[in-house]
Amino acid sequence: MDCVFCRIAADEIPSDRVFESDEVLAFRDLSPQAPTHVLVIPRRHVASLDALGPDDGELAHHLLQGIREVAAAEGLSERGYRVVTNIGDDGGQSVGHLHFHVLGGRRLAWPPG
Ligand code: AMP
Question: Based on CB atoms within 10 Å of each CB, which residue in 1, 88, 99, 105 is the most buried?
Answer without folding.
Answer: 99
